[in-house]
Design a protein that fits this description.
The complex is a heterodimer of chains A (about 475) and B (about 450).
Chain A (H helix, E strand, L loop, with lengths): L6 H4 L8 E19 L2 E19 L2 E7 L4 H18 L18 E3 L11 H15 L5 E19 L4 E19 L2 E6 L7 E3 L10 H16 L2 E2 L3 E7 L1 H13 L4 H4 L29 E3 L22 E5 L2 E2 L6 H7 L7 E2 L8 E2 L4 E3 L6 H6 L3 E13 L5 E13 L2 E7 L2 E5 H6 L1 E4 L6 E10 L4 E9 L2 E9 L5
Parallel strand pairs in A: 4-6, 9-19, 10-17
Antiparallel strand pairs in A: 1-2, 1-5, 2-3, 5-6, 6-7, 6-8, 10-24, 11-12, 11-16, 12-13, 14-15, 17-18, 18-19, 18-20, 20-24, 21-24, 22-23
Chain B lengths: L2 H4 L3 H13 L8 E18 L6 E20 L5 E9 L4 H18 L18 E5 L9 H6 L7 E17 L4 E16 L5 E8 L4 H16 L11 E7 L1 H9 L8 H5 L6 H4 L11 E4 L18 E6 L2 E2 L6 H7 L15 E3 L9 H5 L2 E14 L4 E14 L2 E5 L4 E5 H7 L1 E4 L4 E4 L11 E4 L2 E8 L2
Parallel strand pairs in B: 4-6, 8-13
Antiparallel strand pairs in B: 1-2, 1-5, 2-3, 5-6, 6-7, 8-20, 9-10, 9-12, 10-11, 13-14, 14-15, 14-16, 17-20, 18-19
The chains are: A alpha+beta (about 475), B alpha+beta (about 450).
Chain lengths: ~475, ~450
């Protein structure tokens, strides 16, 4: 950022005399992606984006101008454009916002890193990814083996005419590998957690883990195993969901439904509305008494931990749902002001060229008391599913359907046959009210995804989800196209 | 001209390209370079009328441009090594040049150390292209009034206006230069009833005409009146259906997701492998073509290959061609056809059938009329099964008459049924469904699709 030009100076400029607030948000992000397929390098890419968004508040209306050019002249021009847009739109303002929606913040945050990503050279990492795919291709039945790593370094600096001056430095790591197996016309896939679920804040320690090669072998072995697996039955039954699928269940049927901007209708033309109404907070029994959902930006290695959001609001852990009752929504300062409801610090943008909106960050299901063995042994007949491969839900966040990569049949308290092409469907509130057991700390898994899409203009953002193993009663499960 | 707008000009890209190519040492270091440019100057206005009358939720402008450098080096054994670096351009010439040279320098250090890329290719001289389309867009200071003033009081409109110039460029060190610049707008919006039912519409193009916008609004408002009746709840199970052009466009969008690309077929992802091996087939009425003749999207890809102006993909229900990128072509020893790196559709056209627009309800008889689908995903990709939801203006139809709107239903059905045995006919005309996506940058182009009558469409929840 051009340190010579500050919002405190601009707001005193007579050209911006009506401005109630001026803010700068500068983002510099460098993403390194490396991938391999079938023993050969596929992608080696470095992507950098650097720019800033100027935000101006006039007569209760915010407007923005984003520019990659951070010279004094360009930033002043951007401020003029935002000023002009805010003044014009203020005739049609949705709410009389005030500078209170941009709290002053003066702090810093950095991802805790044990081993920096760059400790390994590009060629070492490319070589590791190639070796992973070679190891996956342990059988002629494996027709495709892929591996993927993304490291993202992001620095966000906020400055505001209210004295805000704060910086966050993040390091995000995502790793995945996948095996595709084929026998005749049957094709099955297995990955390391599904949906790039192994996404963390941290460094090389999340790539080069002691169990890496064990996980590689498991992915290859299970892909082959699925070729001879029984199709998932179509029935209503007990369903055990492992944490790497719980991630998406929480995301789609709780997270998006609780976003206050959806409840306010901002997203109705794209992502959708929500079945949750403002009057539901404090009254709706969203799930069973085993259900405790938190917004928790404090778990250091979870993907979307941070100290403050893009409005400058300080982030802290909050219970959204306690013992099944809905208490609080996912909404930043603007949505809280519009609705008169409490929220959280989740006003977030994907990049310098997009304005912040209400997003999930870390949204977790708190652990219960059951071990995995206790959960399994309590089931006479059921199905266990893990690792997402398909997801879909309606625009009000009611009717969902998920598909998983891998499943097991549970019979008389024991895990028996492997099942392929497992799917399940349900409706959010009845589904969460059928939650009958929640796994303990030992079953708690931390996951995340870099690919949550929402907003107009569209934005992709990183979210974290942690969950124990869960048991749901009487759920509709079914198989694939040819089952 | 401001620095921000300079980055959207061909001469700026050409100048920057020349300066970078001059830095290369192809003879001694085996260096070759490909450059790609994406850029836009956009105005965005978000409107939400949920709290009574159309209001501005968010408004602003975005200037953005990125330069992608792909360095390919040839080692002493003839092996190729490849790496990519992308940086933001500022429009400040000296700064952009300096940063691009730094990116090149970083690639020079890294790329020769990477494993040999078996599917890389050196850039070659091919035919260049130049397309520039001048639009007639609203002045940025008039947009809010123009969007909101025609609305009747109390109308609940929610949507996004996006407009401005968009550029794509490509150049390589063998002398090739492609340039594409257009000026477009889109207003993608929904109108809602007080009962939470909605109609979706888009007004998009290169020349804004107030009367066309007002007519578009009027048509949507007329359709909204059909949604005032209480909604009917349907049961799960197969049902006779009319799918609008927007529904067909959404389903065709799934063909870009690991389906119509040659690599996806070869590597087991695509259900079209079942078409190729003869175990499944589409209806002879289904024809899908990549057709760039409208000039809405660049024909060139990141390697500089030009796609054919027209390429039949599904012809009379048979797999006529697939989308083949240069890497896939090298790997499987087939001919490339200018496909993008993800081998997705860029200019899809589903050809019309024989059903007259006026006869849709009569031909449907009793069933459902679906205006829009939502949140599609493969529920079994290799088996070709897609799940998703109905959304917006969807109706129960009995004996050729619209009876009432329906509550949202989940479907789960295969492309071999939808475009195969269940397909009775397509309508005899197509609609142009503008691509309004704005992930990372404003998307270009559109899908051209007719509506379709299906003998059954499988609702599941």
């Amino acid at each position: 950022m051009d340190n010579s030009l500050r919002p405190e100076e601009l707001i005193k400029n007579p050209d911006f005399s009506k401005a109630q607030y001026i803010g700068f948000r500068e983002v510099c992000e460098t993403s390194t992606v490396r991938s391999a397929r079938d023993g050969k390098p596929e992608a080696n890419e470095i992507w950098q984006s650097h720019g800033m968004m100027v935000e101006v508040l006039i007569e209760g209306q915010f407007a923005y101008a984003a520019t990659p050019n951070r010279t004094r002249e360009a930033v002043t021009q951007a401020t003029q454009k935002a000023y002009e847009q805010a003044l014009i739109a203020s005739k049609f303002k949705i709410h009389p916002f005030t500078p209170a929606q941009r709290p002053r913040i003066n702090t810093a945050y950095s991802t805790q890193i044990r081993r920096i990503f760059s400790e390994k050279s590009a060629s070492d990492l490319a070589g590791l990814l190639v070796r992973i795919t070679e190891r996956i291709k342990k059988s002629p039945k494996i027709i495709r083996a892929t591996s993927f790593v993304q490291n993202v370094e992001t620095q966000v600096t906020l400055r505001g005419s209210n004295g805000t001056d704060a910086t966050q430095k993040f390091n995000f790591i995502t790793m995945d590998f996948e095996a595709t197996a084929q026998e005749g016309s049957l094709v099955q896939k297995r990955s390391d957690g599904g949906m790039r679920g192994r996404s963390f804040q941290g460094g090389w320690e999340y790539l080069d883990t002691p169990d890496l090669w064990e996980r590689v072998d498991k992915v290859a072995d299970q892909a082959i195993e699925l070729l001879s697996a029984t199709p998932c039955p179509s029935e209503k039954t007990s369903l055990v969901i492992m944490p790497d699928q719980m991630m998406l269940q929480i995301h789609e049927s709780i997270g998006h439904a609780l976003e206050l901007d959806r409840i306010l209708g901002d997203e109705r033309n794209y992502a959708g509305w929500s079945f949750v109404k403002p009057s539901d907070f404090g009254t709706l029994q969203y799930g069973s008494k085993h259900m405790n959902i938190t917004f928790d930006p404090t778990i250091p290695h979870e993907f979307a931990s941070y100290a403050f959001d893009d409005s400058g609001a300080a982030a802290k852990k909050e219970f959204l749902i306690k013992e099944g009752k809905l208490l609080r929504g996912l909404g930043g300062m603007e949505s809280q002001a519009r609705l008169g409801l409490p929220g959280v610090a989740n006003f977030r943008s994907s990049m310098w060229n997009r304005a912040p909106i209400d997003r999930m960050a870390n949204l977790n299901l708190e652990p219960g008391t059951s071990s995995l063995e206790e959960i399994i042994s309590s089931i006479e007949h059921g199905v266990l599913m893990e690792s997402n491969r398909s997801w879909s839900i309606d625009d009000f966040r009611n009717k969902f359907q998920f598909g998983c990569e891998y499943a097991k049949l549970i019979e008389n308290g024991k895990v028996t046959k492997t099942l392929r092409d497992p799917n399940y469907r349900g409706i959010s509130v009845p589904f969460w009210n059928s939650l009958s057991r929640v796994g303990n700390d030992a079953t708690f898994g931390v996951y995340g995804t870099p690919n949550c899409g929402k907003g107009e203009p569209n934005q992709i953002i990183r979210v974290g989800h942690a969950s124990p193993v869960c048991l749901f009663d009487n759920i509709e499960v079914f198989g694939g196209a040819n089952s | 001209m401001s620095a921000q707008l300079l980055i959207l000009e061909k001469h700026y890209f050409a100048l920057l390209s020349r300066e970078l190519f001059d830095e290369l040492d192809p003879v001694n270091s085996g260096e070759h370079l490909l450059l790609g440019l994406t850029g836009e100057s956009s105005q965005f206005v978000r409107i939400n009328g949920a709290q009574g009358g159309a209001k501005v939720r968010q408004t602003g402008v975005v200037e953005d441009a990125s330069l992608e450098l792909t360095l390919v080096t040839k080692d002493s054994s003839g092996g190729l090594h490849k790496g990519v670096s992308t940086l933001t351009l500022t429009g400040e010439k000296d700064l952009d040049r300096k940063r691009a040279l730094m990116a090149l320098e970083q690639l020079r250090k890294e790329v020769p150390t990477l494993p040999v890329d078996a599917y890389a290719e050196l850039p070659v001289m091919k035919p260049s292209s130049l397309v520039e389309t001048k639009g007639e867009l609203l002045h940025s200071t008039h947009v809010v009034d123009e969007l909101i003033s025609p609305l009747k009081p109390g109308v609940d409109l929610v949507g996004i206006y996006a407009a401005g110039p968009v550029v794509r460029g490509m150049a390589n060190s063998a002398g090739l230069l492609h340039w594409f610049k257009t000026e477009t707008f889109s207003f993608d919006y929904s109108l809602y009833t007080s009962g939470q039912r909605a109609v979706k519409s888009t007004y998009a193009g290169t020349k804004w005409k107030s009367e066309d916008y007002r007519a578009n609004l009027e048509a949507a408002q007329t359709k909204l009146e059909l949604l005032l009746k209480p909604a009917i709840k349907l049961s799960a199970g197969p049902i006779r259906a009319y799918l609008s052009p927007a529904c067909i466009a959404d389903l065709i969008g799934m063909f870009s997701w690991g389906c119509v690309g040659e690599a996806a077929i070869r590597q087991g992802d695509s259900p079209l492998r079942l078409l190729r091996d003869g175990s499944k087939k589409f209806s002879g009425k289904f024809n899908l073509v990549e057709d760039f003749s409208a000039g809405e999207v660049p024909r060139f890809n990141t390697e500089g290959d030009l796609a054919p102006e027209s390429l039949p993909l599904i012809q009379g229900g048979e797999l006529a061609n697939t989308l083949i990128n240069q890497r896939t072509a090298i790997e499987y020893k087939v001919a490339a056809n200018g496909a993008s790196s993800n081998e997705g559709l860029r200019a899809p056209h589903v050809l019309p059938g024989t059903l007259r627009e006026a006869d849709i309800l009569k031909r449907l008889g009793t069933g459902v009329y679906l205006s829009n689908l939502h949140y599609l995903n493969w529920s079994d990709q290799s088996g070709g099964r897609i799940t998703g939801m109905t959304r917006y203006a969807c109706f129960k139809v009995e004996n050729g008459e619209i009876i009432a709107p329906i509550e949202n239903m989940r479907f789960d059905d295969t492309i071999f049924s939808i475009f195969g045995q269940a397909l009775e006919d397509f309508t005899d005309s197509t609609q142009t469904l503008a691509e309004t996506g704005t992930y990372h940058m404003r998307a270009l182009g559109s899908t051209h699709a007719p509506g379709a009558i299906l003998s059954e469409f499988k609702f599941t929840l």
